[in-house]
Amino acid sequence: MQKITKICCIGAGYVGGPTMSVIANKCPHIQVTVVDINQDRIDQWNTEDLDQLPIYEPGLKEIVAENRGKNLFFSTEVDRAIDEAQMIFISVNTPTKTYGKGKGQAADLKFVELCARNIAKVSKTDKIVVEKSTLPVRTAQAIQNILDNTGDGVHFEILSNPEFLAEGTAIDDLINADRVLIGGNETPSGQAAKDALSAIYENWLPKERILQTNIWSSELSKLVANAFLAQRVSSINSISALCEKTDANIQEISRAIGFDSRIGPKFLNASVGFGGSCFQKDILNLVYIARSFGLQEVADYWEQVIIMNDYQKSRFAEHIISTLYNTISGKKIILYGWAFKKDTNDTRESAAIHVANALMEEHAEVIVYDPKVTESRIYQDLDYLETRSPEENRRLLTVAKNPMEITTDAHAIAILTEWDEFKDYHWEKIYAQMLKPAFVFDGRRLLETDTMKAIGFNYYKIGQS
Ligand code: UDX
Ligand code: UDX
Ligand code: ADP
């Protein structure tokens, strides 16, 4: 079996950065080079001040500090890194298409294709190419076709190695992975490549957690795992709406059903809606694939998970509007949290974007505070919706750095991300500063109902009447 000593990863983002940092950390005998065409991003990865790394992940900066410059390198010299490596990970972004065939559903593979063409152009020796981005099934085949037809006698073996890390816990998820999935061709060279990649993970994970499959199974498992997880959130969120109409309490229901070992306790937290770069994109992909094979019922079944999620976001916003007497024009509404979950600065598909947009449609004066998300990111998210002009977005919504002072004369606060620090705020002081009646809309079930009501708040918690 080929022993891997040099790895290159194309794409220094939320997936490539943490994954390669952990591989470098656990495999001192392997030189890992992460490359990206974005010079700013690479500069940020190379920054002296480790608090300025381009992504925030608990535990990441410590690992980067330990390995960077030793066996972990960040560079824009893409061609050189490809040429030197025996194994190349493709970790570039695969957003949902915003144009043409499959618009709004299919994954845009243009970045992946560019990578494949580049690998074909540069490679002079045999390579194992690992698809690490979330990709629709049959992408490995597409990459294989490009490489086989443009390389000059060089043998490329393609593997699918989907990532299962969740943001905010990426380092822990990588170090203590439930499983690693490696899909490859069922040929002798395919088996050898799968074993070479397995050997890397075996440096820190037990062998039985490393699963080898064919490429189809590996690619599809990734979509299905995320679809099942998202489906649990949509399922519990659908019941949260029913709880609000009855005396049932969603937390009691989650607990009661989670005790059934066939169901299990995880991913049963009702919320304002799931976000993140994967859930929606992967389900849309699954829907697209099912439809393209003529499986309409299958497509409709999974699409409902997205429809329920959209409903949860708009339901939350509408509840705020109706509670505030159906008129929020000019009212000061504070949003605590913009990230799609705590402990990340990622905002892709965050429910906060849609809640803010709905409130702005009603001309509310929205003020956002998030401990990790930058002002420019928040405006980019809003501008991307193209609901109104960038100027209007900046007029209707402001971004604050101090979470306490903005509550003066506010009509309402909505909690959209479950950041721990929100629990420790001086809520009595906040109450004193707000206009009365003072409303708190808790989209993350973060605070204690009794405490908030005792302070005097008009307190709404998603999933409770
Ligand atoms: C997910 C998968 O968990 C991971 O395995 C995959 O590789 C990438 O997609 P991520 O999107 O980073 O990871 O976060 P995750 O923890 O899964 O949360 C996704 C969204 O669901 C968040 O908005 C979160 O707040 C929401 N969620 C999660 C709930 O609303 N309730 C829950 O019980 C769990
Ligand atoms: C079910 C619940 O399990 C039980 O807790 C409840 O009190 C009554 O309803 P039951 O209907 O007896 O029990 O059987 P169960 O084992 O849940 O199976 C229900 C159906 O699902 C069966 O037809 C079974 O063959 C099918 N099934 C179950 C599958 O097709 N695949 C599975 O993975 C599990
Ligand atoms: P993910 O969550 O999938 O990691 P990101 O957007 O965080 O997505 O990161 C993907 C990275 O891939 C970006 O930094 C982008 O600049 C980089 N990238 C995209 N195309 C190429 C390419 N052809 N060569 C090198 N890097 C690329």
Key terms for this structure?
binds uridine-5'-diphosphate-xylopyranose; 14 strands; globular; 465 residues; 44% helix; eight-stranded mixed sheet; 17 helices; alpha/beta; Rossmann fold; binds adenosine-5'-diphosphate
Give structural notes:
This protein is α/β, with parallel strands linked by helices and 465 residues long. It folds into 2 domains: 6-213, 3-Layer(aba) Sandwich (Rossmann fold), CATH 3.40.50; 214-465, Rossmann fold (3-Layer(aba) Sandwich), CATH 3.40.50.720. The protein is 44% helix and 13% strand. It has helices at 16-26, 39-45, 60-67, 78-84, 110-122, 139-150, 170-175, 188-201, 215-245, 250-258, 279-292, 296-323, 351-361, 375-385, 390-396, 427-433, 449-455, and strands at residues 6-10, 31-35, 72-75, 87-90, 127-131, 156-160, 180-184, 210-213, 332-336, 365-369, 397-399, 412-415, 439-442, 458-461. An 8-stranded mixed beta sheet has the order 3-2-1-4-5-6-7-8, sandwiched between helices. Strands 11-10-9-12-13-14 form a 6-stranded parallel beta sheet, with helices on both faces. Helix 6 links the parallel strand 5 (127-131) and strand 6 (156-160). The longest helix has 31 residues, at 215-245. The model has no long low-confidence stretch (mean pLDDT 95). It binds uridine-5'-diphosphate-xylopyranose (2 copies) and adenosine-5'-diphosphate. One uridine-5'-diphosphate-xylopyranose is lined by residues 163-167, 226, 229, 233, 267-269, 271, 274-276, 278-279, 340-341. Residues 10-16, 35-38, 41, 78, 91-93, 111, 114-115, 133, 277 line the site of adenosine-5'-diphosphate.
